[in-house]
Amino acid sequence: MPRWLPPLLALLALAGLAWLLRVVQRFDPGRPLDSAYQTAGLGEVSLRLAGASIISRSQGRRLWHIRADRIDLLRVPGAGPEEFRAAEFHVIRAGTLYRDGRAEATFSAKSAVFDQHARQFAVRGRIRVGTPRGDRLESEELIWSEQDDFVRFPAGTRGIFRRNRLAAPSLVFSPRRRMVQCPQGAEGVFAGYPVRATQLYWDLEKEIVDCPGPVSGERRGIAFSASRATLDLRRRLLKANKGTLIVRIRGDTELPEDLR
Q1: Nearest to residue 178, comparing CAs of 159, 199, 161?
Q2: Among 3, 99, 104, 190, which residue's beta carbon has the most beta carbons within 10 A?
């Protein structure tokens, strides 16, 4: 072997190690973001997509599918670009949330953030929600979790369920169990009759509306108030505890208490 060959091989090896070190330093996810990257306005965004859609799956089943004007994937500090801590969606044209592989609800909205760690969606702005059963809801804020069986509307909502209308300052809805919960009260029109309740729990499948707190409304042209009441929409029955009926004759003339 020529005497000059071993030194040459050693120099080539050192040059290769130096090149590899520079590559590792360049792509080290733990390094601060490059100034040019920050100047571009991307910040912690590892990937930005325009006019795109994303499908999330777990064990072969769909969890959610969203099509938006812009999608930003936010990087995990110290991790590679393929690992993201959150996804931001801007101007959602069409979204679908799945439960057990089946579509649970569709929606559109101004924006949304999916927290990868919590496995939770926070949706905001001009939200329109629909379900396969024909339910329709409108709100400004919605929270949906993969682990939770409910869609939460902490900022209130207005909705239509089987042609019955409901408005509440806070609402929790389970599309799968067909349950509506309004712990802070609600106003609605059920089977054509208005109801105002301080608490309201509605079993859509059984068509039972339970108002465990003070409630008032109108039934067959007669106003009523009670400490609690239950509406059977299927049988068109009203059961009230400690109720008072107010019957008006010829306009606003109210009967004396002893004749009510």
Answers
A1: 161
A2: 190
- CA angle in degrees (0–180, nearest 5) for 56-149-100: 45
- Domain extent for 193: 185-260
Cα angle for residues 217, 171, 131 (degrees, 5° grid): 105
Angstrom distance (rounded) from CA 123 to CA 136? 16
Cα–Cα distance, 206 to 238 (Å, whole number): 15
Pair (69, 145) in one structural domain: yes
Is the pLDDT at 150 greater than 60, yes or no?
A: yes
Residue 31 within any structural domain of the chain: no
Query: For 198-208, what is the mean pLDDT?
Result: 97
Given this model, what pLDDT does residue 253 score? 42
Q: Write the burial class of residue 109 (CB in 10 Å: 0-12 exposed, 13-18 middle, 19+ buried).
A: buried
CA distance 55 to 96: 9
| Cα 213 to Cα 160: distance, rounded to the nearest angstrom | 23
Q: What does the CA dihedral 86, 89, 93, 95 come to, rounded to 10 degrees?
A: 10
The pLDDT of residue 14 is 41
At 227 the pLDDT is 92
- The answer to the question of residue 64 being in a domain is yes
**H-type helices in 27-152, by residue range?**
35-39
Rounded to whole angstroms, the Cα distance separating 128 from 110 reads 10
